[in-house]
Amino acid sequence: MTILRRFAGTFSVDRKDWRQWRGLLLLALALIVLWRVPWLGWVVYPFRLFGTFVHELSHGLAAIATGGNFQRFSVQPDLSGLAWSAGGIRAIVASAGYIGSAIFGGVLIALHARWLSARVLLLGMGIVFGSLCLLFVRNLFGIASALVLTAAMLYAGLKLAEDWRDALLKVLALQLILDGYNSLFTVLRLSGGGDLQTDAHAMAQLTWLPAWLWAVIWILASTAILFGVLRFAMRSGS
Hints:
Layout: H1 2-9, H2 15-36, H3 41-65, E1 69-75, E2 81-86, H4 90-114, H5 118-136, H6 140-159, H7 162-177, H8 179-190, H9 199-206, H10 211-234
Helix pairs in contact: 2-7, 3-4, 3-7, 4-7, 4-9, 4-10, 5-6, 5-7, 8-10, 9-10
């Protein structure tokens, strides 16, 4: 709590605003805990599924941004996914899953804190997300779950009360920002052996850094983005 007070003390915010953003930090910790408790995993499953979609889309969009082509992607019920792309800068494409997710989550929080309502953001996300999935998803579960998630975001934007829309948007954004933490859990689980290749392993093959270190780098980036957007949202004059 001392660290949190010091963090709060660097900004001119009222007590109500600080309670709101302190709650966001606590929610972030709760999400990490829920990921690791098997019998509670269903609570955050829809949010993690959305995170998988954004993760794979980030790979593909990074390929396009660096001169390559985004061909297709798939998402599986176990929350794994695979994106196919050609060309582009491979190191950027391989890192884009976790970094892109964290940046997008940070942008959502910043936009909501300073400019746009949760209603506008949820409706906009639903339209853009649904369109991208229609263009690039190529497996049955991916298509079906994308339709459900798109419908859920559009319904939330149109029908939910303001407080519930705000809470939903924050959980979605935090899930994306904290996606990098899941990379370390996965890499550590696979460190004892196994043929499954993660983004961290792909980066290890492209560079001289080991997979576990790339997972740590993504966690540090996620943490930096989280605190950065909180600072932006709590800056005086917000």
